[in-house]
Design a protein that fits this description.
146 residues; Multidrug-efflux Transporter Regulator, Chain: A, Domain 2; mainly alpha; 7 helices; 2 domains; elongated
């Protein structure tokens, strides 16, 4: 019985432990709790997070990193409890993932075009400065050292 208790204790996390592990602030964890994404237990004034909360936090942060809204993340996480072997959750995650992938590809294309346009504009400006006898390399080095 004590082995089971020790294993359960080892799978419990304080707010400080999760903040350190995932490089987030306590405010972030409280915000996710307020949004009903995390469900820590209370021991007095302390929040105690379960292994499940830790896993959910990992998924929340991964979802945010790829651009999902908190509402989308919550929807996908909440589908875990449907008792259908996660089929619905996986189908929704796949569908939302494909849509987000297309969105990110569109954004990447737009960024690549903007970068190309800006590089061309800088080349033109540098050419105009060179025509006027301004050494753009020396000016750049001076600006970086300041």
């Amino acid at each position: 019985m004590s082995e089971l208790m020790n294993e359960e204790q080892a799978r419990r996390y304080t707010i400080t432990q999760l903040c350190r592990e995932f490089d987030v602030t306590p405010r972030t964890l409280r915000f996710y709790e307020q949004k009903d994404l995390l469900h820590p237990a209370r021991e007095g004034m302390n929040r105690i997070f379960s292994y499940r909360d830790r896993a959910r936090l990992s998924l929340i942060l991964r979802g945010k990193k790829v651009g999902f809204s908190l509402d989308d993340i919550k929807e996908m996480l909440d589908l875990y409890n449907l008792k259908d072997g996660q089929v619905t959750q996986l189908q929704v995650a796949r569908s939302k993932g494909l849509a987000q992938l297309e969105h990110l590809k569109d954004q990447k294309l737009a960024l690549d075009e903007a970068i190309t346009d800006l590089e061309r504009a800088i080349e033109i400006v540098e050419g105009m400065l060179t025509e006027r006898g301004i050494d753009t390399e020396a000016e750049f080095a001076q600006a970086e050292s300041a």
